[in-house]
Design goal:
- The chain has about 120 residues and is an all-alpha fold.
- The chain has one domain.
- It has 3 helices and no strands.
- α1 runs antiparallel to α2, α1 packs parallel to α3 and α2 runs antiparallel to α3.
- The longest helix has about 45 residues.
Length: about 120
């Protein structure tokens, strides 16, 4: 039963992480372009870095949660295990999204202004 619980958890958590990263990356690019002063190259680069960071943090938390998990003896425990650990993975995904959005909204314009100052013709 432990193998079933771990497998379900890994499948759901990894699938959810990939889907959320893809969705945020695809739909967030427009926001990033506007946030970074319509600099498409900068927005694309930041978008890619955010996706990599998103994967690293979330896959790391998935692995840590799994390494801390115990054994599962019956079907009820499988459901509790999967619900608990998928819930934690979902909260981490949401926290990462809000953290990234806060940083982008706070620092996006500053970065865009700095880049434009550096590349402005003399």
């Amino acid at each position: 039963m432990t193998i079933i619980a771990y497998s379900l958890y890994l499948f759901i958590a990894i699938s959810m992480t990939i889907w959320v990263a893809f969705t945020l990356s695809a739909n967030g690019k427009i926001y990033l372009i506007r946030c970074f002063g319509h600099d498409d190259e900068l927005a694309t680069s930041i978008n890619h870095l955010l996706v990599v960071d998103f994967y690293l943090v979330n896959f790391g938390s998935i692995a840590l949660a799994l390494s801390a998990a115990g054994t599962v003896e019956n079907t009820v425990e499988v459901m509790r295990f999967v619900g608990w650990y998928v819930g934690i993975a979902t909260l981490v995904l949401g926290a990462m999204h809000f953290f990234n959005m806060t940083l982008i909204s706070r620092h996006g314009r500053k970065v865009a202004d700095w880049v434009h100052e550096q590349t402005a013709p003399l």
